[in-house]
Amino acid sequence: MSLEEKIGQLNQLNGLFFQDDVESVLTGPGQQLGLTEEDIRLTGSILGTAGAKPLMEIQKSYMETQPHHIPMLFMMDVIHGMRTIFPLPLGLGATFDPELAEKCAAVAAKEAAVAGLHATFSPMSDLVRDARWGRVMESTGEDPYLNSLFTAAQVRGFQGESRAKGQPYEPYKICACVKHFAGYGGAEAGREYNTVELCEHTFREFYLKAYQAGIDAGVDMVMTSFNTINGIPATTNQPLMRDILRGEMGFRGVLISDYSAILETIAHGYSEDGAHAAENGLRAGVDIDMMTGLYSNYLAKLIQDGTLEESLLDECVMRVLELKNNLGLFEHPYKDADPEKESEFLLCPEHRALARETAAKSFVLLKNDGVLPLDLNQKIAFIGPYTDRKQIISSWALTGEATDSCTIREAASEVFNPERTTYLPGSPVLDPSYILVGFREDDNTSSDITPQQQKEMLLEAVEAAKAADLVIMPLGEHYLQSGEATSRAMIDIPDVQMELFREVTKVNDNVVVVLFNGRPLDLREVSQKARAILDVWMPGTEGGHAIIDVLTGKVNPSGKLTMSFPYCVGQVPVYYNCNSTGRPELPNQVLRFKSRYLDIPNAPLYPFGYGLSYTTFALSPVRLEAEGAEAHSLTADGKLQAKVTLQNTGTTAGTEVVQLYLQDVSASVVRPVKELKGFRKVSLEPGESCEVCFDIDESMLRFLRADGTVGSEPGVFRVWVANDSASGEAAEFTLV
Ligand code: GLC
User: Fold this and answer.
1) Which helix (H) or strand (E) holds 648?
2) Element spanning 662, H or E
3) Which of 80, 177, 235, 484 for a ligand 1 pocket mutation test, highest count of atoms within 8 Å of Cβ?
4) Distance between CA atoms of residues 506 and 503, nearest Å
5) Strand order across the beta sheet in which 731-735 lies
6) Most CB contacts within 10 A, which of 171, 260, 491, 540?
7) Could you tell me if residue 231 is left (phi over 0), alpha (psi between -120 and 50 degrees) or otherwise beta?
């Protein structure tokens, strides 16, 4: 391969470069990136185009002119579904069911593969703690252990068993990509792309864990993050990428930059210019330069003038070619692309059914005074902008179509008596002056509702509320208020909807809120006035059916929060696995010189691990045993069992997520007040009970110690077995 050919393998452009006519490309985006026709012709991969037909056409014409007929790689953000859209990841995490997430990823992979794709930029494995950051929707939350399980499960779902064994990809599997390496979720003040300041201990102990789980699961690609780590942009950070990612963490796959991230090292104040940025990228071992053209523009000269060793280029090219080889592209450049199968598989009933099941399991019942499940023999008014809205698939469902979605009204019409049910929007999603720009023209949300029309909508809604026995209010964020570049300083339900909520609750006390959101929101007022709150996130293609399934009791909700809902935005960041501080505020204590606020409680409004059911569950105090006898000490090679009896004390079958938390009471580095170490999803009939048992061994007690080694330390540990991170009584044992 010539130097230019090798460099071309490291260049990634979007598919438009290969779909529009050459002239417009060269004078348009090509010129912007300083690319020649030859540079474009030698490009090794593209992103952002899907569809068997267009991708087969691109591959065919590309292979005809590629000097060594090396096939092109096709990549896309298939984040939570391809055409069948599943709940956004923050909701998927609330299922506490990694195996279910694996199934969803496998369906997404199958749909993506027949649509011609070879790789997805998913799962996002960033730890998140700040609800102001819009990309919390793309994560599975604030716990490293849970994020690790979901990351590994999604990698398995996307890449398949064969790949996990180091064999080539099987059919209908695609390359996954763990992102964003590393620490992107730590952006200061939750402001997108902002500085990340993490001490070494926190970075390694909390933020790196889920990426490591993805690597251990065999992920073939990792994406760099936009932020700096230790003052150096991650994308060009050699210690981070070469010593930690490839050295310590053992990653052997393809490292791809995030979109234009190599170029942005100039704006960071790190690279002097494009050539320096390209040099820094290659030195850090970034194998694919996404959408800057800098590798194409500068690497040849940097190698020819001796600034860069060609061996650096060769190692990157080899990793890209190995990925293509493992995907079988040299033998089958179209892999699974198949227009017929594409129309057969995408949105097929089986996939829709999985989307409906997953959505229902992702919902979290935050409040319920018994008003749910619904009594259908009453007059019910659905009042809210999400009553009949199809845009419930999130801003990261780039390959989904909102028009495929089932709305609440469509689903309710199948079940509710039309004589006794009304459906009204009541308000727009956002105040018409609130402008959001998405990826497509229909994303523009400056709705054309006039102030007069808005007033009429409100009046009509209030009249309907007066006439109803019960009002269900589908409210929430606009889908473009979460996702990339959507940080919010105020984390409220849009004002125009809160006005509707206030007016309705003035005339009807029986209000149930169905909440659509991409982040934890400030729900203080809603939690005081609504009788029930069901959080449905952005539920995906089958959202309407899933919501009605849960509201009517066909499905008993079992979701649990994976990210704390703050009391208000001033409390952010708030997360359950925090440190104690030297002056912890203890329950029922109001002392001035304690770690507390004057004006709000320390506790979040709803904690990690929290979620209600239509039934009730009782948990016995936790018993610690070894070989059947009570025990309170553990040796390095021993095992304890934490046991509880769980009973369904209600009147309906239900599923509880029983959670195991541990605390290392004193150690060479302060340890979190508690950490999730296990969980069980247990389904019980009314009155039924069962024993739930968790094994505890020394390996679960290991952490990054003050001396930089990982291991456990003797001492006292506390154990909770509870149904959320804020409840339960602790038992104690000593590691000897
Ligand atoms: C975006 C995102 C990244 C995504 C990539 C390609 O900027 O940060 O998550 O995969 O670009 O679309």
Assistant:
1) strand 639-648
2) strand 654-664
3) 484
4) 5
5) 633-634, 731-735, 715-722, 654-664, 675-684
6) 540
7) left
The response to whether residue 121 sits with its C-beta less than 6 Å from ligand 1 reads yes
Length of the chain: 736
Question: 260 CA distance to ligand 1 centroid (A)?
Answer: 9
Most ligand 1 atoms within 8 A of CB, residue of 47, 73, 77, 235 to mutate: 77
Q: Is the CB of 259 under 6 A from ligand 1?
A: yes
- Dist. CA 631–CA 624, nearest whole Å: 6
Residues 77, 180: Cα–Cα separation, whole Å? 13
Question: Is 727's pLDDT higher than 90?
Answer: yes
- Output the pLDDT for position 444: 52
What pTM, to 2 d.p., does this model score? 0.98
Distance CA 611, CA 558 (A): 7
The answer, yes or no, to whether residue 441 has pLDDT greater than 80, is no
Helix (H) or strand (E) holding 595: none
CB atoms within 10 A of CB 296: 25
DSSP code string of 406-460: PPHHHHHHTTS-GGGEEEE--S-SS-TT-----SSGGG-------HHHHHHHHHH
pLDDT of residue 435: 76
Q: Please determine, for residue 249, whether its predicted confidence score (pLDDT) is greater than 80.
A: yes
Q: How far from 576 is each of 565, 659, 725, CA to CA, in Å?
A: 10, 13, 7
Secondary structure of residue 149 in the 3-state scheme: helix
Residues whose CB falls within 8 Å of the CB of residue 52, separated by 6 or more in sequence, listed in order: 114, 115, 116, 337, 338, 339, 341, 342
Which residue's CA is minimally distant from atom 1 of ligand 1? 259
Span from the CA of 259 to the centroid of ligand 1 (angstroms): 6
Task: Give the number of the atom of ligand 1 that is nearest the alpha carbon of residue 121.
Answer: 10
Q: Which atom of ligand 1 is nearest to the CA of 290?
A: 6
pLDDT band at 67, cuts 50/70/90?
confident
Share of the chain above pLDDT 70, in %: 99
What totals of helices (H) and strands (E) does the chain contain, helices first? 22, 28
Tell me which H or E stretch contains 658: strand 654-664
Pairing of strands 715-722, 654-664: antiparallel
Among candidate residues 258, 388, 404, 535, the one labeled active-site is 258
Tell me, yes or no, if 258 is annotated catalytic.
yes
Residue 719 contacts residue 661 (beta carbons within 8 Å): yes
Instruction: Please state, in angstroms and rounded to a whole number, the distance separating the CA atoms of residues 219 and 159.
Output: 8
Amino acid present at 540: G
Rounded distance, CA 55 to CA 337, Å? 8
pLDDT at 587: 84
* Beta strand extents in 257-328 (DSSP E only): 289-290
Compute the distance from residue 96 Cα to the ligand 1 centre, in Å: 26
Q: Is the CB of 126 under 6 A from ligand 1?
A: no
Residue bearing the CA closest to ligand 1, atom 6? 259
Atom of ligand 1 nearest to the CA of 179: 9
Picking from 537, 523, 498, the residue whose alpha carbon sits closest to that of residue 397 is 537
Would you call 44 exposed, middle or buried from its count of C-beta atoms within 10 A (0-12, 13-18, 19+)? buried
Question: What is the rounded CA–CA span in Å between residue 210 and residue 201?
Answer: 15
